[in-house]
């Protein structure tokens, strides 16, 4: 009977471990990214927002070369993307958006946050707000 108790305890531990693994897999559903992707055009920008899963958060950095803070924000987002792999991090040059007249250098860098195809939040002139 003593050995039977040890075997029962071992079986229970294995069962609990398997249940925890199953639950973890169910809770961590969806695509994983882990990198900052470059969007090449306004079409890719729209496609990234509209064709993504409704539960995925998308953060888009609109930048331009030579604008203060854009390079630093790109490197920060690269680190964040590796840490928060369930969030899709993208960047696009303002001149490639097709709406570069709206994104002059005085509003860059800009961060746009989308979820379910809808704009959730925007941060304009990020370097002025966060130094």
UniProtKB/TrEMBL annotation:
One of its GO terms (biological process) is regulation of G protein-coupled receptor signaling pathway. CDD domains: Phd_like_Phd. Residues 1-130 form the Phosducin domain. GO terms for cellular component: photoreceptor outer segment. Signal peptide: none annotated. It holds the Pfam family Phosducin. PANTHER family: PHOSDUCIN, PHOSDUCIN-LIKE PROTEIN. Belongs to the phosducin family. This is Phosducin.
